[in-house]
Amino acid sequence: MPLINYEALDSSTDVTTTKTLLYEAIPLTGTIVSGTYSDENIKNFTHGMFQAVYDYPYLSSSANHIFDLTVGYSSNSSISGSVSAVQESKKINMYNQFAQVLLGYTGSNNVVRDFERDLTLDGSGKMLNTFMINFSRLITKDQIKKGSFSLIVGTGSWASPFEFVETLTDASASATAGTTNTLGGDYGVLYNASNTTRGIVFYQAGIAILATGSWDSVTDFNSGSSPVYSYTTAQSLASASISGSCDALRHRIKNISFNNTTEINSSIYFCRVPHNKYNYTSNPTYLSSSQIVVKSIGTDTPISYITTIGLYSSNNELLAIAKLSEPLRKDPSNEITLRVRLDY
Question: 5: alpha, beta or left, given left = phi > 0 and alpha = psi -120 to 50?
Fold first, then answer.
């Protein structure tokens, strides 16, 4: 059995922590979202409150969940109470659920905050009618990287949705600016090319909220004189079912892209081997005539080889083992500092 020696670690000088951010580019092409598999990768539920989008037909064992899509509007919206409204209570509930989780309450009578187009959260620029894109953790990991989100949506006629397109980005957001912290984490504003706000993206939650207008005729995502979202009344947010409205937007998504973020937290231990310690071993390979020896001649320098580091608790309970790629020679003429990193 090799000799085990214990050396206490000083938490102030021998232990430190670091955080490493790894980024991965995620492209979601419109062909997957809007019809490559004849919508066999789109799952609608009997409750009718949202639809799920997969990268393959969802009945396939290799299918991966990409995002959920739903719509909703605030009880303060002009749509609310419309005689033509379909699934109104569900749409209001969906809006309130997202707003409650991401923004919380106003502080008065437990009134849920409304989404806003800016970073002020002061009641200005409200988004009362919205689409919600809830990305799966499979692709967002720990969060969406700030400043990397892009959504290209078609704003042409129903027959030619991509005759005109609008690109929404959070280009003004960065790790230190252009974001606001909320109950649901940081969010940044989505702008079009003319610097008009069209929605917001919550980075840690992995959720994009897109603003709509009244959803009558050509009122939404207006980009000048070009045809914009030429929906009929039956396709409007108020009169269409949630799944029907989701289909209408989904078939206009040309591309979604962003960088996800994986946070790797590490504890680093500096295991120091001084020159006057760990120069001997009781390893059975040091046998001569059935006796353990560390040197053949008394004047020789003792030598040992370090192969393993164990991290122990204060009660000498083994918590982790680190194996060296090759044995390290140790004798009184040298000192060694071994860096052990635990990722989690």
Answer: beta
